[in-house]
Design goal:
The longest helix has 32 residues. A 3-stranded antiparallel sheet has the order 1-3-2. The chain has a domain of 45 residues. With 169 residues, it is mainly alpha-helical. The chain has 5 helices and 3 strands. Helix 1 runs antiparallel to helix 2. Strand 2 and strand 3 form a beta hairpin.
């Protein structure tokens, strides 16, 4: 079960059975956790799936959908009722809702980092940089360059055949 939901259950129990400051702190932490993840007390015990709203940026739809499939399964029901405003409705339990939100945030960041690495590797592999300028990527660490080098090895070098003469005689 999702760690956030388990934490919510433990905090709920402590808030009910705790003594003094322990009870007060558990209650406050539970309310903060519920607010952060958009869940209610009765959601903590729910197991039935219902449509829940997910907002995303236009270029994030494919990552959100993949995360939903990984959490809920291949039969995930997704409704894109408002593509203009980037809103999905995904059928999931409260626990799955929390897991999708947390996983999407994590994997979107990882996706963007990987995409940046791929872009560097693609540009270097295909020599798409100014040959007469000083390198500007000196801010990259050795580890980042190692990743780029490794990725470059798996990228096919693209060769464009010139269709127009350069005008030089």
């Amino acid at each position: 079960m999702d760690k956030v939901l388990e934490l919510a259950k433990k905090l709920k129990a402590l808030a009910a059975k705790g003594i003094g400051g322990e009870k007060t702190n558990a209650d406050k932490m539970l309310k903060d956790l519920m607010k952060k993840h958009g869940i209610a007390l009765d959601d903590i015990a729910k197991t039935e799936r219902e449509y829940r709203e997910f907002k995303y940026e236009p270029n994030q739809a494919h990552v959100l959908a993949q995360v939903a499939f990984s959490v809920v399964g291949a039969a995930t029901e997704i409704k894109e009722v408002d593509p203009k405003h980037c809103i999905y409705y995904i059928k999931c339990t409260p626990a799955e809702f929390i897991e999708i939100q947390a996983s999407f945030s994590f994997y979107w960041d990882a996706y963007e980092k990987s995409l940046k690495t791929f872009n560097h590797a693609f540009f270097v592999r295909n020599e798409l940089y100014s040959k007469d300028a000083e390198p500007t990527d000196s801010a990259l660490s050795d580890a980042e360059w190692d990743k780029i080098q490794g990725m470059m090895e798996s990228i096919d070098k693209s060769t464009m055949h010139k269709q127009i003469e350069s005008g030089k005689e």
